């Protein structure tokens, strides 16, 4: 009996002994200021049971068996940390203490300046515009360098431009409906509250909050209680797009009564930074108020805006730069002893959001946001009526044309405001004393959007290792677009008549053709768009694999409603009133598969296949005048894949990736002013040409390497290599529309022979190597060497069509045309490779509860002014004789328009936080 009891006791106690041998391991995760880092991810290499840090920075793993373990602690915008530890059989609880994550170098310095002034020109004639990518640092060395080092020189990772990036605030997309691009100026100057995205995913990696696109997602949560309790004051001095910035931010933290407040404001101002005649005065404000009703429910109200008044700088031909230098800007002139710029962008589009946060059960969350954005974006320019073009760089005023010498051009190289006012004064009255209209005016192209959004996000954990996300979005846009008189420049009134088309009325229904300051002129129309989208994603974590899948479907409908009936007879029925509705249905899938080799090494595959509806600008070839659809406009079909090897070691962090992306059925529209010769009348006119390429196919492929090596405990070496090839893979169809010739399609132009032409707007190859030193005494210094290769000029589609070399009277090539000569004339220009050197340094101080920081960054230390950041061919009359003559001139009349890098620029910043 005793033996039986002993056996029973033995078998009973064995499991208990085994159980008590298991251990709970715990720790606290904090930042370098000692603040808890909520939602940091802790990855246990030997298990699928990864955990998320709670609000006080605490995490734990329970029931760990004796053995050797490795964990990776990571959070966006902080340097991840890897810890190894042993669990012994006699430990019931193991305390790993406080795990401190340091800020990524540079992310807290406020050195990034969003400068989109190059986008303000209307001379572009190009589907390419220089853009800056998502300016958010992450844990990845490649993305950090791309944003802060190479990004300063308009480098686009994988060749993807702003059109394919997503920035989301509380579930609401910030992409504009007209062109799909993100307008960073809507929150410019609010660096303190937009410094750290809540989620930041790269490229085609699936997001929890939206399906995303090709260029990644930055998701911002503006919940007041999520901001660190502090007051922050900052002042910056720079010579980039402005000269001075002052910024203040206050966050209360969550009070005992359940309230939280975060407010931020800034001003950016200054002139003569680098480019002549450029000045800026911009304010910004942000307010977030949260009321917490219980641990499960809170409501947050957010409002922000950035009223900006900014002068623009012009692209110029190489001839102009050679005469005037790289700082020359033709958009300004002297008036009463002050510089006056004709191209002013005045934008203010505030947005207000109400967000409801609800926790359902133990594992589910439901977040709903309604938002409303309104305001206007106005861009001014000089206009003229039966008068000479006032542009100082008009081709007939250039020395190459032969009328002026270089010295004479220099003497009148700026806008002559006095002459413009005098021309209007001389034209005030007729011979009989009756008033006459303006010869010159300043007009504004105005866009007034009213956008309503509803966004709903639901997430739940179906199991400990299985998460589900559901996102629904609805957006309604009403966009009022018109040109108005901003300044009559001393005249009585202006004429609402088309001087370039026999003085027909722009609005045939209005017999009064006199317009005054504030009145609409030339065009007026409204666009309406409704968009519905549903996205479902799921993530499952296994011991060796992590699988994420995301699907979406969306429906959109858009229409145009014209307010002016065109005075041109053939356009009257398509200019005023509501158009037919253009609708589009989209769908797509994304997937991410991660294989965990061990706690330090991973293989990651991302794949995406989806369609993308055309933007409003792509749907209508010339919405200013008519409701004509762009011929061949379709949904883009995007297929993208990448595979990466990732190492997250304590000494070496590395990512090596290969990618391939194809885009099919794209539509690219360029709008530019061009001289148009009318052979019947024997006159030369100027008109706005709308040029479209339809059915465009492109391929983006390449490899990326990014590494961060900890040479010593304080010295890191960071290197990046991006080797890509981005090119057109077919010959798309070409069509144009202008008010003189109307619509002309492929029956006139044919196809653009652009197969194998390179995508413009970014270096296709880029390399960077840098060293950064982080002192234990809270100072740091870094430098990087950057090499940029394979930058190409954007092309004019018309110059690549058979029309250019075909005699329209015989339908045969012009005499002397050969394939070799065509190739010589139409060859795409490639710019020279360039080397850039950057440096940065900073120091922080702690005085009790006060923290102070100083930082400075300098780009292009060697003052390299030869780097072309963007450029395009001018769209002109298309015929072989002119093209051949242009190619044979030492200085062409219509050389490409270029933007050059501004040379050495700096940004200094000082802040005080308490």
Cα distance spanning the termini: 74 Å
Question: Measured on Cα atoms, how large is the radius of gyration?
Answer: 30 Å
What is the highest CATH level, the class of the largest domain?
Mainly Beta
In CATH terms, the superfamily of the largest domain is TonB-dependent receptor, beta-barrel domain
Count of strand segments: 49
Mean pLDDT: 89
Structural class: mainly beta
Keywords: Cell outer membrane, Membrane, Signal
Signal peptide: 1-21
Main location: membrane
Organism: Chryseobacterium soli
Q: Could you describe the 3D structure shown?
A:
There is one protein chain. By secondary structure, the protein is mainly beta. It folds into 2 domains: 23-103, Immunoglobulin-like, CATH 2.60.40; 132-913, TonB-dependent receptor, beta-barrel domain (Maltoporin, Chain A, Beta Barrel). The protein has 10 helices and 49 strands. Strand 27 and strand 28 form a beta hairpin. The longest helix has 19 residues, at 2-20. It starts with a helix and ends with a strand.
Q: Notable features of this structure?
A:
28-stranded antiparallel β-sheet; single chain; 48% strand; 914 residues; four-stranded antiparallel β-sheet; Immunoglobulin-like; 9% helix; mainly beta; 10 helices; Maltoporin, Chain A
Layout: helices, strands, pairs:
Blueprint: H1 2-20, E1 23-31, E2 41-44, E3 51-52, E4 58-64, E5 67-74, E6 81-87, E7 93-101, H2 141-148, E8 166-169, E9 172-173, H3 191-194, E10 199-201, E11 217-220, E12 230-238, E13 244-251, E14 259-271, E15 279-294, E16 297-305, E17 308-311, H4 318-324, E18 332-335, E19 338-341, E20 344-348, E21 351-360, E22 364-373, E23 376-384, H5 406-411, H6 417-425, E24 440-463, E25 466-487, E26 494-495, E27 497-498, E28 504-505, E29 514-515, E30 520-541, E31 545-562, E32 577-578, E33 582-596, E34 601-612, H7 616-619, E35 636-648, E36 652-678, E37 683-710, E38 715-728, E39 733-738, E40 742-744, H8 746-749, E41 765-774, E42 779-789, E43 806-807, E44 812-813, H9 819-826, E45 834-847, E46 850-859, E47 868-872, H10 880-888, E48 897-900, E49 905-913
Parallel strand pairs: 1-7, 8-11
Antiparallel strand pairs: 1-4, 2-3, 2-5, 5-6, 8-9, 10-11, 12-13, 12-49, 13-14, 14-15, 15-16, 15-17, 16-21, 17-20, 18-19, 20-23, 21-22, 22-24, 23-24, 24-25, 25-30, 26-29, 27-28, 30-31, 31-32, 31-33, 33-34, 34-35, 35-36, 36-37, 37-38, 37-39, 38-41, 39-40, 41-42, 42-45, 43-44, 45-46, 46-49, 47-48
């Amino acid at each position: 009996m005793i033996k039986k009891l002993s056996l029973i006791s033995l078998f009973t106690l064995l499991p208990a002994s085994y159980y008590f041998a298991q251990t709970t391991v715990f720790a606290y995760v904090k930042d370098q200021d000692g603040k808890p880092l909520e939602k940091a991810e802790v990855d246990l290499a030997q298990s699928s049971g990864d955990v998320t840090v709670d609000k006080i920075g605490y995490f734990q793993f329970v029931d760990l068996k004796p053995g050797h373990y490795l964990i990776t602690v990571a959070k966006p915008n902080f340097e991840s940390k890897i810890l190894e530890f042993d669990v012994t059989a006699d430990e019931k609880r193991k305390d790993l203490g406080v795990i401190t994550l340091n800020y990524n170098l540079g992310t807290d310095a406020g050195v990034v300046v969003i400068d989109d002034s190059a986008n303000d020109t209307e001379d572009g004639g190009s589907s390419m515009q220089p853009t800056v990518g998502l300016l958010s640092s992450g844990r990845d060395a490649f993305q950090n360098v791309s944003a802060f080092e190479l990004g300063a020189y308009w480098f686009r990772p994988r060749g993807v431009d702003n059109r394919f990036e997503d920035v989301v605030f509380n579930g609401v997309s910030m992409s504009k409906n007209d062109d799909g691009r993100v307008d960073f100026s809507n929150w410019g100057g609010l660096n303190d509250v937009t410094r750290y995205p809540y989620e930041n995913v790269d490229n085609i990696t699936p997001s929890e909050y939206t399906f995303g696109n090709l260029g990644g997602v930055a998701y911002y949560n503006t919940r007041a209680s999520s901001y660190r309790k502090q007051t922050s004051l900052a002042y910056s001095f720079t010579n980039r797009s402005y000269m001075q910035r002052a910024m203040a931010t206050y966050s209360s933290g969550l009070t005992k009564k359940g309230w939280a407040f975060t407010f931020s404001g800034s001003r950016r101002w200054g002139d003569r930074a680098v480019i002549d005649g450029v000045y800026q005065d911009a304010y910004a404000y942000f307010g977030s108020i949260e009321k917490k009703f219980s641990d499960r429910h809170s409501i947050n109200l957010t409002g922000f805006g950035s009223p900006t008044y900014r002068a623009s700088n012009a692209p110029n031909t190489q001839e102009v730069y050679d005469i005037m230098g790289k700082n020359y800007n033709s958009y300004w002139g002297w008036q009463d002893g002050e510089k006056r710029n004709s191209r002013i962008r005045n934008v203010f589009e505030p947005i207000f959001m109400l967000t409801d946060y609800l926790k359902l059960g133990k594992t589910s969350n439901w977040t709903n946001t309604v938002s409303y954005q309104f305001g206007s974006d106005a861009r001014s320019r000089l206009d003229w009526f039966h008068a000479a073009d006032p542009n100082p760089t008009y081709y007939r005023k250039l020395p190459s044309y032969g009328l002026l010498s270089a010295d004479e051009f220099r003497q009148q190289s700026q806008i002559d405001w006095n002459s413009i006012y005098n021309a209007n004064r001389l034209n005030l009255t007729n011979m009989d004393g009756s008033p006459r209209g303006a010869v010159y005016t300043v007009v504004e192209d105005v866009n007034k959007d009213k956008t309503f959004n509803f966004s709903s996000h639901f997430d739940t954990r179906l199991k400990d290792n299985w998460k589900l996300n559901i996102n629904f979005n609805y957006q309604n846009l009403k966009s009022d677009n018109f040109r108005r008189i901003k300044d009559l420049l001393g005249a009585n009134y202006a004429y609402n008549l088309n001087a370039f088309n026999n003085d027909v009325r722009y609005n045939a229904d209005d017999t009064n053709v006199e317009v005054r300051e504030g009145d609409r002129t030339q065009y007026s129309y409204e666009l309406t768009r409704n968009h519905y989208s549903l996205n479902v994603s799921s993530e499952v974590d296994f011991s060796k694999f992590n699988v994420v899948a995301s699907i979406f479907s969306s429906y959109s409908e858009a229409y145009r409603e014209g307010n002016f009936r065109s005075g041109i007879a053939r356009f009257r029925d398509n200019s005023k009133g509501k158009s037919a509705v253009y609708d589009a249905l989209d769908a797509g899938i994304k997937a991410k598969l991660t294989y965990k080799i061990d706690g330090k090494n991973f293989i990651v595959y991302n794949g995406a296949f989806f369609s993308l509806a055309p933007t409003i600008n792509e749907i209508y070839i010339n919405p200013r005048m008519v409701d004509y659809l762009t011929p061949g406009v379709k949904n883009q079909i995007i297929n993208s894949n990448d595979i990466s090897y990732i190492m997250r070691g304590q000494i070496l962090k590395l990512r090596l990736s290969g990618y391939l992306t194809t885009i099919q059925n794209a539509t690219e529209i360029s709008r530019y002013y061009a001289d148009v010769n009318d052979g019947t009348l024997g006159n030369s006119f100027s008109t706005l040409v709308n040029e479209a390429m339809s059915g465009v196919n492109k391929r983006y492929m390449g490899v990326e390497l990014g590494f961060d090596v900890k040479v010593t405990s304080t010295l890191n070496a960071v290197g990046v290599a991006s080797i890509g090839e981005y090119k057109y893979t077919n010959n798309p169809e070409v069509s144009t529309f202008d008010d003189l010739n109307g619509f002309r399609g492929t029956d006139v132009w044919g196809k653009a022979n652009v197969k194998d032409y390179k995508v413009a707007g970014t270096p296709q190859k880029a390399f960077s190597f840098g060293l950064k030193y982080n002192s234990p005494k809270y100072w740091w210094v870094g430098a990087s060497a950057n090499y940029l290769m394979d930058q190409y000029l954007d092309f004019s589609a018309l110059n690549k069509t058979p029309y250019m070399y075909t005699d329209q009277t015989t339908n045969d090539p012009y005499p002397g045309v050969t394939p070799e000569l065509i190739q010589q004339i139409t060859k795409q220009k490639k710019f020279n490779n360039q080397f850039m050197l950057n440096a940065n340094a900073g120091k922080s101080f702690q005085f009790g509860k006060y923290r102070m920081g100083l930082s400075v960054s300098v780009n292009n230390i060697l003052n390299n002014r030869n780097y072309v950041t963007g450029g395009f061919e001018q769209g002109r009359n298309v015929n072989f004789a002119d093209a051949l003559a242009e190619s044979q001139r030492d200085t062409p009349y219509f050389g490409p328009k270029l933007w050059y890098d501004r040379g050495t620029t700096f940004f200094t910043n000082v802040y005080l936080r308490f």
